[in-house]
Design brief:
Layout (H helix, E strand, L loop, with lengths): L1 H16 L15 H18 L2 H13 L10 H9 L3 H21 L3 H9 L13 H14 L2 H11 L14 H4 L1 H5 L5 H29 L18 H10 L7 H12 L4 H13 L5 H16 L12 H15 L9 H7 L4 H14 L4 H15 L8 H17 L3 E7 L6 H6 L4 E7 L8 H15 L7
Antiparallel strand pairs: 1-2
């Protein structure tokens, strides 16, 4: 109540004469939105590093929710500088960047509860309260618009990870992918991109560790008080799935076949490369019907793709763009809805086979991985309006995707060890129960250190979005 009355008075006063200035230089920068934004950013950076989180939250609440100054600061006129300029877009950018300044700093100091409280501030009922002040009306309308926007949904991802697993929506299990579009979008504030990248990486590391621990402990004969926690939704089937995936080793392993393909196609024309690529993708596909559909659908797409370059030598830039286009054909072409080919292939129960095809693409073009994960995020958002029961078939696909990529593109190596030396090779191939899974750290994943790979994949993904003529 006090904040509302004070805000009304201050809003009316500023609307009338716009003369309230906590610092002399503000008078010289009237309608200077960038300077006003920087003043707010500097203030928040200063207090988040030196104040207790609850005190910082109070300042944020006074500034952005109740629109009232406190004894410790006089930043409100800077906010009104943006309001008087009537630039809702700049207000939203300011609000977003301020949120991610706090999130980044609290994440570094592990003040995760403060991140949750920050998001909860936007549920304050004062935002829906009537006010006679035109200025406050505008501010509250902008805040309500922000809450209803995709920007706020992105912000909520940073708090959702700390909620009870049993209460979260199924799509939040894949937050590491939902964050990818945030950190590859150059229009987002730098703080948001950094926060999204850091959290995505942490969540992948967490899943990778939990998966390795579960597979190691689930078959252990050692007594334990509690069963190991399964980080997937596949139940005990996940162990058999991993055994099936890991069993494909040696000369015909997916990384080895990808290496051979790249060596054999480096001097081909682009037309010949596309033909070889099609054969590579369907090579060793177990389901004949899947291979027929995939070959027919992709053959038509590839024949018309970048035809102006058909007689030219294939280049890394062409490979990247081709990989990105195929990934879109197999997932979502408009970055909103699933592609017809995605629905067709999964409707026949071929989740794992499709995941393997996607894996084979990023194994020959590591920089396409970020683009693929962004498309996976598009699919997760599309199906998030359905209950898990309604779209269990696609949830299984998402589970298999993160399991397969954890096995083949991360820095943990899975191996099968024969626990029954008396079995013949034929018996072992038919009965995976005689194998145990062991995991260990690898020095590298996808032949590059994780940080270097992530930076380069983002750069390459953004480069691939440019028109081909700019290459």
């Amino acid at each position: 109540m006090f904040g509302d009355k004070l805000g009304d008075k201050l809003g009316d006063k500023l609307t009338a004469n716009q003369s309230l200035q906590p610092f002399g230089k503000l008078n010289q920068s009237r309608r200077n939105v960038p300077k006003a934004q920087e003043a707010i950013y500097e203030f928040l950076l200063e207090i988040v590093k030196n104040w207790a989180p609850d005190d910082v939250l109070k300042e944020f609440k006074h500034l952005f929710i109740h629109h009232s100054d406190t004894v410790g600061s006089s930043t409100l006129p800077y906010l009104y500088e943006i309001v008087f300029a009537n630039q809702e877009h700049e207000f939203r950018n300011t609000l977003k960047r301020c949120c991610y300044i706090l999130i980044n700093n609290w994440d570094l100091t592990r003040n995760h509860e403060a991140i949750q409280k920050l998001v909860q501030l936007f549920s304050d009922p004062i935002l829906y309260k009537y006010t006679i002040s035109p200025t406050l009306k505008r501010l509250r309308e902008w805040l309500r618009n922000f809450i209803a926007s995709a920007d706020f949904q992105e912000l909520k991802l940073f708090a959702a990870r700390y909620e009870d697993r049993g209460k979260i929506h199924w799509s939040q299990r894949y937050t590491s992918y939902l964050l990818v579009p945030q950190y590859i979008n150059l229009e987002n504030p730098l703080e948001q991109r950094q926060a999204a990248r850091n959290l995505s990486k942490k969540l992948k590391e967490q899943f990778k560790f939990e998966l390795a621990m579960y597979t190691a402990l689930s078959e252990s004969a050692a007594p334990r008080e509690q069963p190991p926690q399964n980080p997937t939704s596949l139940g005990d089937e996940v162990v058999r799935l991993i055994k099936r995936i890991v069993a494909k080793r040696g000369f015909f392993s997916y990384p080895n076949i990808a290496h051979i393909f790249l060596n054999q196609t480096k001097n081909l024309t682009y037309r010949s490369f596309k033909q070889s690529l099609l054969e590579y993708l369907i090579f060793s596909v177990e389901q004949d019907e899947f291979a027929v559909i995939l070959k027919a659908q992709l053959s038509e797409k590839l024949s018309t793709l970048y035809t102006d370059h058909d007689d030219k030598a294939v280049t890394s830039a062409l490979i990247l763009r081709t990989a990105n286009r195929i990934l879109e054909y197999l997932t979502t072409e408009n970055h909103q809805e699933p592609s017809a080919l995605f629905v067709l292939l999964l409707s026949q129960g071929n989740s794992l086979t499709l995941v393997i095809v996607l894996l084979k693409i990023i194994l020959i073009c590591r920089y396409a991985r970020t683009h693929l994960e962004a498309r996976i995020a598009d699919l997760i958002r599309y199906y998030s309006s359905y209950s898990e029961e309604e779209c269990q078939w696609v949830v299984n696909f998402f589970e298999m995707f993160r399991i397969v990529t954890a096995i083949y593109t991360e820095n943990i190596e899975y191996n099968l060890v024969n626990m029954n030396e008396s079995c013949s090779r034929q018996e072992l191939a038919a009965d995976t129960e005689v194998y145990r899974i062991f995991s260990q750290l690898k020095r590298r994943g996808l032949e590059l250190e994780p940080d270097i790979l992530e930076m380069k994949t983002v750069e390459a993904s953004l480069e691939a979005a440019k028109p081909l003529e700019e290459v």
